[in-house]
Specification:
Length: 531
């Protein structure tokens, strides 16, 4: 497609004389790692060479550690475990190269009269708003979702930012001056608000700001440089060296690099259902995951029509699991959802429902403002247990996760408006009674019948017939379903240590998993042991 577009442009502007409005003398691209992106680069090069036009492929400078400074020269030597890769580069603070100098000037924009008239039905936008309207025009607002979420009253996007370098640098400065950067390690698992995480991911993905520029700003703040904004000088931790928050940000920036390098190493396997481990799966067919597919019966013996119905409810946030539904609705309406929520959504689709994880990765690709090829697909693999996670098969219990990270249910109430009037007053005080109050919010099927009637939820499909019923015994903190400290996400990057599963329940967990993979669990059946 890119080649066809370039060929058409060169047919009009590529001759030595060109046109009165200009001539194409060169084609430049930035090198990418994805399979389709490399195909486009190859097509562009072929078109340029066929037309006698210069072609240049520029090094991508968005990343934290320059490729020339990696501890290997052959991508085959990239460690298959992130920790091993990270340790080979520590201390991270001293690794990145200096940022490139800011150009003293830029070429002028082409004059308006050089833009040729567009053939019907196309038009040339004359303002930013009209350009955005033109970009939106081919899209269906519903995104082909049968029951698309509606914006809840009073809800605010946690990602209300504009694109561009100016906005990126403004955000970076705010994070430092407000103390949000220093607090990042403690707040990054938040669900509501603007400052619980850096939210630099969209700008990083597009190159509006680079990882090295972020690092350089952190160093200036940590070193207490005199030539920084005055607001930074009053920020907590200014001039006191690296702190847990800035160290954690560097950890995440390196994870983005690692996912990109994994894409280079594994190539098309980024999109294989068996993931980076597809070779292992082929060699050991007995241990191969059995998935539910949209277009055919998979190894789980499922009905694809039934699977498509399940995915429809998953996309629109009508699963019946509060944390999952809140995240899916937020994503649909804002283009963003938190790292913690992404992990749970990926685990829910791939492990609880047993559905081909690529369905979720593709949905995120469609919806995320901060979409990045390698991070999105690599992290979905990671959570689905087919990527480079040394602890394969992790499974998050979204009820336990909601209890840990949405203690008062505010996140779910914000985005699932139907549940706002569920009485959870006093739940944040904790204790067994407080936790019990939240159970109907986290899984609406647990609401008493009178409460369902009061809330007009009687007979609502996702309330009465959730896609899955997850048992959770209040006060039982042991066992299955990752609850605590798993910080590797889907869509962006997180990763430290988790608590693991209760070994004594492994047999029961396996039995339940096998039942889940045979289709949508019926009411009363469990997905994971209580945790």
């Amino acid at each position: 497609m890119v080649g066809d577009v370039l060929q058409d442009l060169l047919a009009k502007y590529g001759s030595s004389e060109g046109t009165p409005s200009g001539r194409i003398s060169a084609i430049w691209m930035t090198a990418e790692e994805g399979v389709e992106e490399k195909r486009e680069q190859r097509d562009a090069r072929n078109v340029a060479e066929a037309n006698g036009v210069e072609f240049k492929l520029w090094r991508d400078e968005k990343f934290f550690i320059d490729d020339r400074d990696l501890p290997f020269t052959d991508i085959k030597d990239l460690a298959d475990v992130y920790t091993t890769f990270r340790k080979s580069l520590e201390p991270l603070r001293s690794r990145p190269r200096a940022t490139l100098p800011v150009p003293s000037s830029l070429p002028p924009l082409p004059p308006a009269e050089s833009i040729p008239p567009q053939a019907d039905p196309f038009t040339s936008p004359e303002s930013l708003s009209s350009m955005i309207d033109s970009l939106h025009k081919p899209l269906r607002p519903s995104m082909d979702v049968e029951e698309p979420p509606k914006w809840p009253s009073g809800a605010k996007s946690g990602h209300p930012f504009s694109g561009g370098e100016f906005s990126a640098r403004k955000r970076l400065s705010h994070l430092i001056s407000s103390g949000a950067m220093a607090d990042y390690k403690d707040t990054r698992n938040g669900l509501l608000g603007e400052d619980y995480s850096t939210k630099l991911s969209a700008w990083l993905a597009l190159g509006c700001v680079t990882a090295r520029q972020v690092h350089a700003s952190l160093v200036a703040y940590e070193d207490g440089n005199s030539d920084v904004p005055d607001a930074w000088k009053a920020a907590p931790g200014f001039g006191k060296g690296e702190n847990p928050g800035t160290a954690a940000v560097r950890f995440e920036l390196l994870w983005r690099d690692y996912m990109r390098l994994c894409t280079r190493k594994f190539g098309p396997r980024l999109f294989h259902v068996d993931g980076f481990r597809s070779d292992e799966a082929s060699e050991n067919s007995d241990g191969k995951r059995k998935w539910r597919f949209l277009d055919r019966s998979g190894g789980a013996g499922d009905d694809p029509a039934k699977t498509r119905q399940v995915v429809e409810r998953f996309r629109s946030g009508r699963t019946g699991i509060g944390l999952i539904d809140a995240s899916q609705r937020e994503l649909f309406l804002t283009g963003y959802t938190s790292n913690r929520a992404r992990q749970n959504v990926a685990s829910f689709l791939s492990s609880h429902l047993g559905i081909d994880w690529r369905v979720g990765a593709e949905w995120y690709e469609c919806m995320l403002t901060d979409y990045d090829l390698s991070n999105n697909w690599g992290n979905w693999q990671y959570v689905a247990g087919v990527g480079n996670d040394p602890r394969q098969g992790r499974k998050f219990n979204p009820v336990k996760q909601a209890l840990d990270y949405d203690k008062g249910g505010e996140y779910i109430k914000t985005w699932v408006e139907e549940l706002r009037d569920v009485d959870v007053d006093g739940a944040q005080d904790g204790g067994r009674k407080g936790e019990e109050m939240l159970m109907g919010l986290f899984q609406a099927w647990r609401l008493p019948e009178k409460e369902k009637e009061r809330l007009s939820l009687k007979g609502v499909e996702w309330v009465e017939k959730p896609l899955i019923r997850i048992p959770f015994a209040v006060g039982n903190k042991a066992g299955g379903g990752f609850g605590g400290d798993n910080r590797r996400p889907s869509g962006r990057g997180r990763g430290y240590r988790g608590r693991g599963r209760g070994g004594g329940r492994a047999k029961r967990l396996g039995e339940v998993d096998r039942a889940a993979k045979q289709g949508l669990l019926e009411e009363g059946e469990s997905s994971v042991p209580a945790s």
